[in-house]
Design brief:
By secondary structure, this protein is α+β, with helices and mostly antiparallel strands. 54% of the residues lie in helices and 18% in strands. The protein has 11 helices and 14 strands.
């Protein structure tokens, strides 16, 4: 393994029995020469060989005069790099049409070949080709005509970048206005949903219409929220896309001129990879946000053709699923980008993966509850256990689902309290508004009352309610009615009926009000529940918030 020594010049390093030094042209690394760590006799050290070779290359690239546009002594069009053999060594030399006498650049030694694990001739041929290409490119950069062409290209690219930046500013201005408008729309929709949930229902408005109105408001609120996510992602893409374009253009411009090529190489080899990986990763995350949002909106539009309640439930699940998918893509891209950036920086990804695995195992144990919340939340969405607007009972808490994320669900109970429950703690969930709801109606009457009349009156009351406006829109379906229990102290008349989701509360209260009036008019006295021994009262559950 290469080892750095504090006493060695930059770039010089010890590698086993060898001491090596880098050789480059205009800051571009070409290859490494090698000597013994402790050279003996007339052998030069690696540092001295490096100095001689660099001096020879600098002489080959020297200008005719002191002015930058005076041209070079050697002609790039006729420059030829060749190999001359001298016993066990090979000498690499250069000539052109003006200099027919070979100019020595470097000697390929047996130590070089041993370090590179090849023969002297093969290594000499390889280095000759490398030097031929690098020296011709470096000489061409120093020619007056090439400098002028590069300046023209620089002006054209600079103008194009300025135009691109202006377009980006215009796009950002438009996106900024759109983001502000969408923020206002999202806030307005949230206020509308809150107002619709807590205000009194008009007498002429049917229960089904009320539920559809609330569902429609929630669904319409989801679309601006997704469009807001897409707009923010597009703004990020525009900003970082422009930054990436400027970075690449600057690196390219610095590489055009020999005076700035070393700086360009530093940016290219040390900074470029990490910067490009970071920017590309960020752009990929934002592009994924846009793609996921678009797909979610298309899915939501197709869901509108499904039956009313089913389509509404599907559209309510779309935003949460989209956020979860975007988060998963972001995590995967971040992991891959981190590994790529560490590899570009020269850090062994194997050791990083080992440490990352250990750290991930520790995080898993430390955050197992959090991971369980996310996993349970995913299954809640996939299995459609509940969505925003459902009335559910989770453990000891009951209320309307007001908000959902992949980790928690928030309920608003009848007292107006906002209850936040992690999905991992939702072991048992009772959904009172999935597809349809049921009213289990019971009322106690006196033991001497006319039971047949009581049953008939309760049944007719329910059937009349189902035919009247606005209750006829609540999907009331009479199932059965009869005497549920008999005792010396009283009878219990019981009926069962189905309603539209979340309408069981209002329907039961309406039946309470009507049956009391009907029984009193018919002279049927209320009795005692034989099971509890107490006076039966018709008690309705609290109205959901």
């Amino acid at each position: 393994m290469p080892t750095a020594s504090p006493g060695l010049p930059p770039g010089i390093r010890n590698e086993g029995i060898f001491r090596t030094a880098p050789i480059g042209v205009d800051g571009n690394f070409l290859f490494r020469i090698a000597t013994a760590i402790n050279p003996g006799g007339d052998q030069m050290s690696a540092e001295m060989r490096q100095q001689y070779i660099n001096a020879a290359i600098a002489q080959l690239l020297a200008l005719r005069g002191t002015r930058p546009n005076s041209g070079t002594i050697y002609d790039p069009a006729s420059l030829r790099v060749a190999v001359q053999h001298d016993g066990s060594q090979a000498l690499i030399v250069a000539t052109d049409k003006h200099h027919t006498t070979p100019f020595p650049i470097l000697t390929v030694t047996a130590t070089d070949a041993k370090y590179q694990r090849t023969t002297v001739d093969a290594l000499a041929a390889q280095w000759r080709a490398t030097l031929q290409t690098a020296l011709v490119v470096a000489l061409q950069k120093r020619q007056p005509a090439q400098i002028k062409a590069n300046l023209r290209s620089l002006v054209v690219v600079g103008a194009a970048l300025l135009a691109l930046s202006l377009l980006a500013l215009v796009a950002l201005w438009a996106l900024r206005r759109r983001i502000v408008a969408l923020r206002r729309q999202v806030a307005h929709d949230a206020e509308a949903i809150d107002e619709a949930q807590f205000r009194d229902v008009p007498e002429k408005e049917s229960a089904t219409h009320t539920r559809r109105r609330l569902g429609g408001l929630t669904v319409r609120a989801a679309d601006p929220a997704m469009r807001l996510t897409a707009a923010r992602a597009l703004a990020t893409i525009v900003v970082w896309g422009t930054v990436l374009a400027w970075f690449l253009a600057i690196v390219w411009a610095l590489n055009l001129f020999p005076q700035t090529t070393p700086l360009s190489n530093v940016l290219m080899h040390r900074v470029r990879a990490v910067v490009i990986i970071a920017i590309v990763a960020l752009l990929l995350v934002r592009v994924a946000d846009v793609v996921v949002t678009r797909l979610a909106r298309l899915y939501g539009e197709n869901a509108r053709f499904a039956p009313a309640d089913e389509g509404t439930r599907l559209m309510l699940r779309v935003p949460t699923i989209a956020r979860a998918a975007s988060a998963m893509v972001a995590i995967l891209v971040a992991i891959v980008a981190l590994m790529a950036a560490l590899g570009a920086a020269g850090i062994s990804t194997g050791s990083v993966l080992t440490l990352g695995g250990i750290a991930a195992l520790g995080i898993t144990f430390a955050a197992q509850n959090l991971l369980r919340d996310f996993l349970n939340g995913f299954f809640v969405l996939v299995e459609d256990q509940y969505v925003v607007g459902d009335y559910v009972t989770i453990g000891a808490w009951s209320g309307v689902v007001e908000a959902m994320t992949l980790r928690v669900v928030q309920l608003r109970d009848s007292a107006g309290n906002l209850i936040t429950i992690p999905h991992g703690q939702a072991d048992q969930v009772v959904n009172s508004s999935r597809d349809w709801s049921r009213v289990d109606f019971r009322i106690g009457i006196d033991a001497d009352a006319d039971a047949d009349a009581a049953v008939a009156l309760l049944q007719s009351t329910i059937e009349d309610l189902a035919r009247e406006d606005p209750w006829m829109h609540d999907g009331i379906v009479f199932e059965w009615c009869g005497i549920d229990s008999v005792g010396s102290s009283g009878l219990v008349v019981r009926a069962s009926l189905k309603t539209a989701p979340l309408r069981q509360f209002e329907v039961k209260r309406e039946i309470n009000a009507r049956i009391i009036h009907v029984y009193r008019k018919a002279g049927i006295a209320f009795g005692v529940d034989p099971k509890s021994g107490v006076q039966v009262h018709v008690v309705s559950p609290p109205r959901p918030a």
